[in-house]
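Students often ask why inverse folding is considered easier than folding. One informal answer: many sequences map to the same fold, so there is more than one right answer. In these notes we will look at a single instance of the problem. The structure comes first.
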C-alpha cells in the first residue's frame, strides 16, 4: 500500500486511463478526488471508491480553482495530482483549422498548466507533492491524424520539466507518463482502434494495452518512493517507442 494516508486528485477519472489510475491509487491506499467534464461518470467512479466527484472543465480557470478548493475542503490536503483529462482527437491534418487547434491546446496543454498551478500552493505549504502529467508516446512516434494533440503533448513534456525545476526545492516532483495506444473509450469509439493491430506489431509485448497496464507506472511516480525521479517521461507502451 504505497499510498496509505495520501490524497490524490485525478482529472479525467470518469473513464479510460484516468479511471484505471483512480482505481489503482485507491487500491494502494489513497483517498481520491475525481474531476471530470462528465459529472455522472465521475460520480459513478467516486461512489465505488468512496471518493469525491467534481464536475469541472480543466480548461476553465474558475473551474480548476474550484477543483482544488473542493478537494481540500473534503480531504484537508492534496499530496498527488494525476492529470489524465484530455481530448483524444482523430483529425486529418487537412481538416485542422485554427479554432480546432486552439480547442485541443486549450484542454490538453492549458488545462495541464491550470491544474498543476492549482495544486502547487497546498503542496508547497505541506513541503510535499507528486505531480504526474499524462503525455503520450504519439509525441515521440509522430502518430498521424492528431496534429494539435502531438503539439499539446510536447508542451506537456516541457511543462513537466519546468515544474520539476521550479518546484523541486519545495519537496514536489513532477513527471509524465507517456502511454502508447490503449483500449480506452476514446480509442475504441474512434478510427484509432483500427491502428491497434499495426501498433501491436511494433511493440515488444504482442497484445493490446488496457488502461490497467498504464496505471502502475503512474502509481510509482505518485508514490513517496519515486522521490529521486523528477522531470522525467516514463514511456508505458510495451516497447513501441524507445528513448
Ligand atoms: P477518454 O476520452 O477515454 O477519457 C478522458 C476523460 O477526460 C473523459 O472522462 C473526459 O470526460 C475527460 N475530459 C475531457 N476533456 C475534459 C475537460 N476539459 N475537463 C475535464 N475532463 C475532461 O481518454 P483516454 O484514452 O482514457 O485518455 C486519458 C489520457 O491518456 C489523456 O491524457 C490521453 O491523451 C492519454 N493517452 C491516451 C492514449 C490512448 O491510446 N488511449 C495513449 C496515450 C495517451
Ligand atoms: C500510438 O495518445 O499514442 C493512437 C490515440 N496511437 O491517442 C494516443 C498512438 C493514439 C497513441 C495515441
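Output (designed amino acids):
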Amino acid at each position: 500500500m504505497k499510498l496509505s494516508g495520501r490524497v490524490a486528485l485525478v482529472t479525467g477519472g470518469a473513464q479510460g486511463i484516468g479511471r484505471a489510475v483512480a482505481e489503482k491509487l485507491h487500491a494502494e491506499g489513497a483517498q481520491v478526488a475525481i474531476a471530470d467534464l462528465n459529472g455522472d461518470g465521475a460520480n459513478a467512479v467516486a461512489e465505488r471508491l468512496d471518493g469525491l466527484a467534481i464536475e469541472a472543465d480543466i480548461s476553465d480557470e474558475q473551474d480548476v480553482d474550484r477543483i482544488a478548493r473542493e478537494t481540500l475542503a473534503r480531504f484537508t490536503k492534496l499530496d498527488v495530482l494525476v492529470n489524465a483529462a484530455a481530448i483524444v482527437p482523430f483529425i486529418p491534418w487537412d481538416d485542422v483549422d485554427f479554432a480546432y487547434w486552439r480547442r485541443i491546446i486549450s484542454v490538453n496543454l492549458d488545462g495541464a498548466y491550470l491544474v498543476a498551478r492549482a495544486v502547487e500552493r497546498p503542496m508547497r505549504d505541506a513541503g510535499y507533492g507528486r505531480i504526474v502529467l499524462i503525455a503520450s508516446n504519439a509525441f515521440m512516434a509522430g502518430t498521424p491524424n492528431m496534429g494539435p494533440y502531438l503539439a499539446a503533448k510536447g508542451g506537456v513534456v516541457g511543462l513537466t520539466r519546468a515544474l520539476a525545476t521550479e518546484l523541486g526545492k519545495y519537496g514536489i516532483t513532477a513527471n509524465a507518463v507517456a502511454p502508447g495506444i490503449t483500449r480506452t473509450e476514446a480509442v475504441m469509439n474512434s478510427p484509432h482502434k483500427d491502428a491497434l493491430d499495426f501498433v501491436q506489431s511494433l511493440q515488444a509485448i504482442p497484445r493490446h494495452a488496457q488502461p490497467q497496464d498504464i496505471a502502475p507506472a503512474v502509481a510509482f511516480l505518485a508514490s513517496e518512493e519515486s522521490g529521486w525521479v523528477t522531470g522525467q517521461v516514463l514511456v508505458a507502451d510495451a516497447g513501441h517507442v524507445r528513448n
